[in-house]
Amino acid sequence: MGKDKLKRFAENKTFSNLYQPDFSEVFRKDYRLKGKWRREVFGNDNPIVLELGCGRGEYTVEMARRNPCNNYIGIDIKGARLWRGAKSALEEGLVNVVFVRCRIEFVESLFGENEISSVWITFADPQIKRENKRLTSPFFLDKYAKFLINGGTVHLKTDSLFLHEYTLGIVKERGYEIIESNPDIYGTGYAGQDNMLDIKTHYEKIFLSQGLPITYMSFKISRDSLGRRTQ
Q1: Among the CATH numbers 3.40.50.150, 1.10.10.60, 3.30.450.20, 3.40.50.300, which is that of 3-230?
Q2: DSSP SS3 for 60
Q3: Catalytic residue among 4, 30, 125, 224, which?
Q4: What's the predicted TM-score (pTM) here?
């Protein structure tokens, strides 16, 4: 392991805005902050927005900058990447954003019922050969439904047309309400209509320079649709 990574891992332990639960704290049990993020972490009742697979936290931090009326939590398993987002937020004094180093498979151990208002999934690995690893697969959507508010929104922004079309099919199959489905948010000008969509991460800029269209989808998960699906 490189010296830079070791240095970042050590610094991560000093960050007040970075939570790193042990495997034993989330495997088949509730994390100590489950259901308590507003009260014990943010100290307010503002909505909590979750970004899954946030990488270096660029998107999470920028959303927090643009919308101080929301709380933001970025999750990723890569500690060396999270270091950048956590450090930037601390340097800027952003009190409405924190990060969690954890596998997304354990996300339902982190958050309680109705604790999260919306979920963002930005440029996730499409996992073409492993459906249950896709962050919009039924396996994961069922997890999100346990902590999202009723009618909570899931946002998917990706360069993968495969993941976009796959998700659209799952959403329709499950009867979720589709808010928007756009195959090219910059080419159609749709990105300019939403101040969260025109945020560009390092990798997104690379995709755009290669001429790849960026797709976007948002949909609501309601308990009514879940009930109809299980009948």
Answers
A1: 3.40.50.150
A2: helix
A3: 125
A4: 0.94
